[in-house]
């Protein structure tokens, strides 16, 4: 049995669809209600978690694999072995703000974000010193309520930005869902893990 930490929400939904496409009965995941540990096909035990916690579980050796967005990997710099880009959960880091924002205006900008390290690195590359305000969600609010000059966030469909009248000023890295492994599990359960990788890739 492979223990797999799966990021709740969009990553989970698109991964469940991929697993169904590969012929697995995913009804336990679809009908999980509030349960957090779900067995699928007598082969996998999925542990539903927030993205940053997926990496914490891996680092602490309590799961074999993790399914998590590359946004979280970029932010956390965690020690884990990336096995596969699942190509699901595709989105992009962006710099966005209200229409009147001037990215070239001199002076120290205030940036709202769930990704302080990604944001810090982005502005450091541009030689700009910024003040970062760490947020936990609904990041788009920050420039609207006067908390920040702009945001560094991820966008998938672009709807949240559009419906809140925010404009994209720069596009940063692309993001997608990755399969990552705990290095010890990779040694101990090598065959089982690589069979799973082959299956996810669309092989036998
Ligand atoms: C993410 C992101 C944006 C939204 C963008 O937030 O931070 O707010 O998705 O998606 P869209 O381009 O498809 O509109 P998420 O939904 O994960 O929730 P959060 O704001 O609570 O972090």
TrEMBL record:
Main location class: cytoplasm
Physiological role: Catalyzes the condensation of ATP and 5-phosphoribose 1-diphosphate to form N'-(5'-phosphoribosyl)-ATP (PR-ATP). Has a crucial role in the pathway because the rate of histidine biosynthesis seems to be controlled primarily by regulation of HisG enzymatic activity.
The organism's place on the tree of life at top rank: Bacteria
EC annotation from Swiss-Prot or TrEMBL: 2.4.2.17
Gene Ontology biological process terms from the UniProt entry: L-histidine biosynthetic process
Gene: hisG
Keywords associated with the record: Amino-acid biosynthesis, ATP-binding, Cytoplasm, Glycosyltransferase, Histidine biosynthesis, Nucleotide-binding, Transferase
Domain remarks in the Swiss-Prot or TrEMBL record: Lacks the C-terminal regulatory region which is replaced by HisZ.
Descriptive protein name: ATP phosphoribosyltransferase
Complexes and interactors: Heteromultimer composed of HisG and HisZ subunits.
Organism: Limosilactobacillus fermentum NB-22
One Pfam family hit: HisG
Protein family per UniProt: Belongs to the ATP phosphoribosyltransferase family. Short subfamily.
Pathway: Amino-acid biosynthesis; L-histidine biosynthesis; L-histidine from 5-phospho-alpha-D-ribose 1-diphosphate: step 1/9
Matches recorded under InterPro entries: ATP_PRibTrfase_cat (IPR013820), ATP_PRibTrfase_CS (IPR018198), ATP_PRibTrfase_HisG (IPR001348), ATP_PRibTrfase_HisG_short (IPR024893)
Domain ATP phosphoribosyltransferase catalytic intervals: 52-202
GO molecular function ontology, one term from the record: ATP binding
Annotated localization: Cytoplasm
Enzymatic class: transferase
GO cellular component: cytoplasm
């Amino acid at each position: 049995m492979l223990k797999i930490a799966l990021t709740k929400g969009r990553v989970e939904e698109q991964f469940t669809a991929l697993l169904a496409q590969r012929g697995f009965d995913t009804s336990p995941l679809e009908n999980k209600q509030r349960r957090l540990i779900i067995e699928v096909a007598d082969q996998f035990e999925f542990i539903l978690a927030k993205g940053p916690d997926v990496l914490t579980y891996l680092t602490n050796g309590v799961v074999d694999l993790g399914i998590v967005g590359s946004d979280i990997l970029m932010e956390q710099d965690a020690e884990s072995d990336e096995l596969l880009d699942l190509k699901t959960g595709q989105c992009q880091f962006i710099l966005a703000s209200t229409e009147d924002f001037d990215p070239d205006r001199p002076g120290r900008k205030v940036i709202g974000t769930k990704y302080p390290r990604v944001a810090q690195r982005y502005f450091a590359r541009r030689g700009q010193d910024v003040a970062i305000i760490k947020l936990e969600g609904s990041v788009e609010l920050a420039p609207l309520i006067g908390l920040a000059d702009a945001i560094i966030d991820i966008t998938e469909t672009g709807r949240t930005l559009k419906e809140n009248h925010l404009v994209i000023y720069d596009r940063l890295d692309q993001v997608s869902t990755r399969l990552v492994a705990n290095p010890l599990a990779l040694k101990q359960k090598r065959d089982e893990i690589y069979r799973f990788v082959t299956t996810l890739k669309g092989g036998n």
